[in-house]
Amino acid sequence: xxxxxxxxxxxxxxxxxxxxxxxxxxIRRSERDVKDVVQGIFEQVSFSGGSAVSQFSEKIxxxxxxRIAITAEAVAQARNALAPADTRALRIAADNVRVFHQATRxxxxxxxxxxxxxxxxxxxxxxxxxxxxxxxxxxxxxxxLLMQAIPAQVAGVRERVVVTPPAKxxxxxxxxxxxxxxxxxxxxxxxxxxQAIAAMTYGVVLDDGxxxxxxxxxxxxxxxxxxxxRYAASLPGGPAVDMPAGPxxxxxxxxxxxxxxxxxxxxxxxxxxxxxxxxxLVSDSGTAITEILAEVERxxxxxxxxxxxxxxxxxARVIRVRNMAEACEVSNLYGPEHLAIQTRDATDLVASxxxxxxxxxxxxxxxxxxxxxxxxxxxxxxxxxxxxxxxITTASFMTSMSVQTVSEKGAAALAPVAARLARLEGLEAHxxxxxxxxxxxx
Length: 442
Hints:
The chain has 17 helices and 17 strands. It is of the alpha/beta class. The longest helix has 20 residues, at about 85-105.
């Protein structure tokens, strides 16, 4: 257990600053010049357009940007390259994502009459163009494609631009092609990094076609992608972005009735993401803590990505609390991307949770199920963003507008109120515009 180098904390002994420090995110292992590099890329793309994007892509990824059309032939080849069980699993995941997001799509509200003759409602409309970044590199993250492109489709987004880094040989993995087909995409662009975000920010013409300027950017990525999204959103008239997306996180609340083997497996499933991922175990039971850490050590022995997991566990926290009320306090202060509740009264504890990207309740619920196939999107806020933001939903790809109608009777009742308030603020033109609504029609 000592080999895990896990920091243990007794929550009841900490003051306010101590609690803050105990839940601090690890310092990211990123290059210090990320901001300068990203700004340089954006300036070049702003000036030179597609040629700059191509140059950066060749330099960083080793290949020029390519548009991969999702044709019947391409889909058939991709299906033949995968095992039937793989294609069936991908289809089930896509269906579940679509079913969930169709069921949770925002609907226009009924009319609300606040004053006789004054009616208002909220209506929803899809954004025009969504730029969707799907991380790549060591593995084809087709699940991230499904979790973004399908909600965008359900929302009714007219233009969905999907970009992802090419594989080492410059290709697009067959699973990515099938995922794109399940999401009913026309194409996927092979382009990664900050240059991909710049392309979707400004709109560029490339050898294989045109990438339009997008209204909102979505998706996780490395430090350069995260900074590129931040920079894009800071530009005058720049695109909106979905949320902060840093290293992945999991907080597990467990008591002595938890399945220790499963709790350990969940912690490791997050720790193997990368060295920057953070896992936290919170428990009111010394027995549970001891047994879960022993299970973590045992399972590490046969884990292919054990080296990465150990690096992540070096930033892990094990927090002993007096009761489940304190456990919920810890979780709410941290605001985890993922929260697993593995206790006897797991369902009851949900009422006390105020900040988490996704909550997995009870023995059989697992972050892994949510990551791939349960239905809700796994693109979630990190770095405490869950305290004010939710994960990607259909609403993320839509905007709401209030619509108001006022009858002559309604204007007669409300215009004098509005005019008086306008004059109280010193805005005479506002007041006169209200007064005119009470005058008889000539």
